[in-house]
Amino acid sequence: MLRVTMIGVALAVGLTACGNRDRNAASTDTAVGGMAAPGTTRAAPGSTSDTMGAMAPGATDTSSAAGALDTMAHRAGAAADTLANKAGEVANKAKAAVGAGAAAAGSAASATAIRTQLAALSSDQVKQLQTALNNDGCDVGTPDGQMGRHTRDGVQCSLKKHGIGSANLDSLYSVLNLSFK
Asked: Is the overall model pTM greater than 0.85, yes or no?
């Protein structure tokens, strides 16, 4: 829409310039050759010759005006394309920011869900989980039966390693051969 508007403005400016040029050429025709003789055809406005076939001083070729219009339209189109590209970049950055925010919110929600589920485990169950996580390659340190940051990080590591949804600890327990029912 912006491109169409800009091209329309460029064309209007160009047409105004052409109209002024035609008026200048017409006054030059009158000053040089006078009015066209009866029965003769007057040259087209903006043409390079008067009614007698001679070059009228100050007259211009309409191809120059058309070229100027083409140049203005091209510049307007290029400016519109640049603006559209910038708008697209801003939209992509906004989408990325929204996606990152949603991922962070989802991560925080899943971390809370994991904490809630892990809090229900007894000290003995935590010790079994810590041993299983260490055996799975997710180092949580020496199994002590205490739920802490290292154990939660080990759970996240093992969930990711096995491609399990972040709040699905029952599936993780199954993969680790643990039965906490």
From this structure: no
